[in-house]
Amino acid sequence: MIALAGITFTFVMVFGGYLLAGGKLGIILKSLPFEMMMIGGAAIGAFAVGNTFASVKQTGKDTLKVFKGSQWKAEDYNQLLQVLYQLIHLARKNPVGLEAHIDNPHDSDIFSQFPKLLKDHTALDIICDTLRSASMNYDDPIQVEELLDKKIDETKHHLEHSVHGLQSIADGLPALGIVAAVLGVIKTMGSIDQPPEVLGKLIGGALVGTFLGVFLAYCLVAPFALKVKAAADDDINFYRTIKEVFVSHLHQHPPKMCLEVARQAIPHQFRPAFATLDEALRTLKTNG
Which positions, given as ranges, span the membrane (predicted)? Predict the structure, then answer.
């Protein structure tokens, strides 16, 4: 994983360079637990004060995206387009038969082809609500597109809440490092009558707080926020793909053209090849 490799590389370069320059890890390791307790504890506590329990829990969960990336992969987009193709084809051929699928998606033989989709309530709601509204003659493409944009923007705002939370922690960590350093200086001033070698270690321990605050902010937490935002953007593209298919469908384009418009809008790293998707659709027709 690139994230894990990047973290390892950062630690090796920073502390390796320190050791090669003649530095000693002893004073850092001795002060680290106490400095980490003050800085990390204050950061977590302040974040908890400014957020709800659900937000704190969601931020912790979203941090895993640093290592896992977006929940949607290239194969998921391929499967999504196949499911949407079957739904819009059925909507035109047998609107009454479509109702059973959108009213009870968990019992639908179309949705069951993509179990991962059934676990995402946002995607499921967008699909079912849009098809249900179209069946009730709310089928103006411009109005539907505006409505879907609002839903997607709301989801984007929710997904990026963790990003803002992590960035706020990153912004505060250097200042919290100074707080810990000041406490270290206060401790040192209480031992001002000690010999220079003792004072030197105490001052060095105090400076560990400043180092730790800056290091955590710019080498870990801020990059984590960027990676979570990138994963959130990728997740949003999945919902935009659904929107593109339905808007094209309401413009009365042929089902395959609806899929092609959406396919071309998918980011290149997730975009299924035309031939791959076309072969999958041919298989669906054969099985159908």
Answer: 37-56, 172-190, 202-226
